[in-house]
Amino acid sequence: MDREIIITKDGSHSLFVKSMGETFHSKHGAVQESLHVYIKNGIDLIKKDSINVLEFGFGTGLNALLTLQFAIEKNKKVYYETIEAYPLSEKEYSLLNYDDFINSAVSLNTFHEIPFEIPSNVNVNFSFLKHHTKIEDFTTENRFDIVYFDVFGYDYQSELWSVEILQKAYDFLNPNGIFVTYACKGLVNRRLKEIGFEVHKTQGPPGKREMVVAVKKL
């Protein structure tokens, strides 16, 4: 991918994909977006001491770093599994400034330097496994309490918002598990409902009116 680092409005970095004309995060603030969507309206809703997370789209590693910070602050045990088809190069990830914003006791580089397909105990609160594969090809026997759905937007990668992919997310979740994403597109919401999710719209991060939290109800 033809990517370059940009500075978002909260001072944190994101990446701009020139060929797509799309950024990895909101231009209004990468860190504040991820905190709002995946922490405040995601993992913080799960009232368990041990939480299994599955992330669709590892990207810059920002969500993993914020989740580690959450696990330490809340004294939770988090198992974090993530999928990435097009990992960043060392030149790209080493320049990202998330360590200036996040107090996680582990640097962003650590997550990128951990080899794919090798389970790792990042610290006593956080276990980590990343897969170098396309979402379409991913499979696992593990089940999760929450799915972070952080792929590129529907207008850029509509195939990742298909019924088939959303069904995979549903199937990977435990009963009452949460599917959370920054998006709130009517077509996607209808697909989520058809699959069996209970869809809730909530206030989006700065620059976005709404986002979605969906619950797997059986």
The strand order across the widest sheet is 6-7-5-4-8-9-11-10
Q: What is the CATH superfamily classification?
A: Vaccinia Virus protein VP39
Helical element count?
6
Radius of gyration: 16 Å
Query: Which overall shape is indicated by the principal axes computed on the Cα atoms?
Result: globular
Average predicted confidence as pLDDT = 96
How large is the share of residues in beta strands? 25-35%
Q: Write down how many β-strands occur, each being a DSSP E stretch of 2 or more residues.
A: 11
Q: Structural class, please?
A: alpha/beta
Helix content: 10-25%
Number of domains: 1
CATH architecture grouping = 3-Layer(aba) Sandwich
What pattern of helices and strands is seen along the backbone? EEEHEHEHHEEEHEHEE
Unreliable stretches:
none
CATH class: Alpha Beta
| Terminal-residue CA separation | 40 Å
Say what the CATH topology is. Answer: Rossmann fold
Largest sheet: 8 strands, mixed
InterPro entries: MnmC-like_methylTransf, SAM-dependent_MTases_sf, tRNA_MNMC2
Keywords: Methyltransferase, Transferase
GO molecular function, one term: oxidoreductase activity, acting on the CH-NH group of donors
Pfam families: Methyltransf_30
Topology readout:
Elements: E1 3-7, E2 13-17, E3 22-23, H1 30-40, E4 50-56, H2 62-74, E5 77-84, H3 90-93, H4 108-113, E6 120-123, E7 126-132, E8 144-149, H5 163-172, E9 173-181, H6 186-195, E10 197-203, E11 210-216
Parallel strand pairs: 4-5, 4-8, 5-7, 8-9
Antiparallel strand pairs: 1-2, 2-3, 6-7, 9-11, 10-11
Helix pairs in contact: 1-2, 5-6
